[in-house]
Design a protein that fits this description.
The protein is 76% helix and 0% strand. By secondary structure, the chain is an all-alpha fold. α3 runs parallel beside α5.
């Protein structure tokens, strides 16, 4: 099993390089700048870690070699998680272009969830670890918890695209969906592996191979999506029908975003409810609901 894992680890840099070449050659870097940053971080860190793993700089002492490898691995691990966060946000923006009002509210909720996740990770993991020992002892648990938070966001994004891609005028052949699919595969495998290792510690080697296979599948998925030409319709601007449910919800979100701010603290709750009622009435006046009975 160790030989199989070594083979999979050695195969990863090849697939990372292949996915990066296909990505930039397809001209997708302009549409997905955060994705290009992630691939650059992933490719550079993979090559650097491989060089350190195979001790291509033999003049370095073993202690310094281990220290460099340790901090390089975990720092690039955190950097990759941060880059994935921006890729998720980037994909969400592109998919939600037809409904800018809902996109604004979704991004606001997305940012608040991210801030709360970071605060929880720092409070639950970083502070106890920093009290227990030096910084080197707390960097790995912080990185692992951050990646788990990002993994949950990846799965949520993939589930959202599965449920709403067609309603937003997109299909599963779009490159936005391909990016989300790749991240979703990796995120699901990491969460499943973490649960298995916690319950069955003897399966550590198996879970390592499982997650490595998922990583290779993610890279292969991206290679296929960026190698096959994307349908022209996926790049065109989508205009929703005025009477559709999403268009009405988008109008409502735009109306809420344009609500006048209450200047005085003496305003009662009734005035706020009247403002909400007025927004809803204006939206329904522009997009009347047709009763099918």
């Amino acid at each position: 099993m160790a030989h199989s894992q070594d083979f999979l680890v050695q195969l990863e840099p090849i697939l990372v390089l292949l996915a990066a070449i296909v990505f930039f050659k397809s001209g997708s870097a302009r549409r997905f700048p955060a994705m290009s940053t992630y691939l650059a971080i992933r490719g550079g860190s993979t090559l650097l870690l491989e060089a350190l793993l195979w001790n291509l700089v033999p003049t370095i002492s073993p202690n310094i070699h281990y220290t460099i490898y340790f901090y390089t691995y975990w720092i690039t691990y955190v950097a990759s998680a941060v880059a994935i966060f921006f890729v998720i946000q980037e994909v969400f923006k592109l998919v939600m272009e037809p409904v800018p009002g809902l996109r604004r509210l979704g991004l606001l909720a997305f940012q608040w969830v991210s801030v709360i996740s970071v605060v929880v990770v720092i409070g639950v993991v970083a502070l106890p670890a920093s009290i227990a020992g030096p910084f080197g002892n707390c960097i790995s648990p912080i990185a692992v918890e951050l990646v788990r938070c990002v993994s949950v966001m990846e799965i949520c994004l993939l589930a959202f695209l599965f449920l709403s891609a067609q309603a937003l005028g997109r299909t599963f052949r779009s490159r936005s969906f391909g990016i989300a699919l790749g991240f979703g595969i990796q995120a699901a495998s990491e969460l499943a592996a973490a649960a298995l290792v916690t319950r069955y510690p003897d399966l550590t080697s198996f879970t390592n191979i499982f997650t490595q296979c998922a990583t290779l599948l993610m890279l292969a998925t991206w290679t296929v999506y960026f190698l096959i030409p994307e349908p022209k319709a996926e790049r065109e601007r989508v205009v929703l029908a005025p009477g559709s449910a999403l268009a009405r919800w988008n109008s409502l979100a735009n109306g809420l975003g344009q609500m006048p701010q209450v200047a005085t603290a003496q305003s009662s709750t009734g005035f706020f409810l009247q403002d909400i009622e007025g927004v809803v009435e204006r939206v329904l006046a522009k997009n009347p609901v047709i009763n099918s009975h």
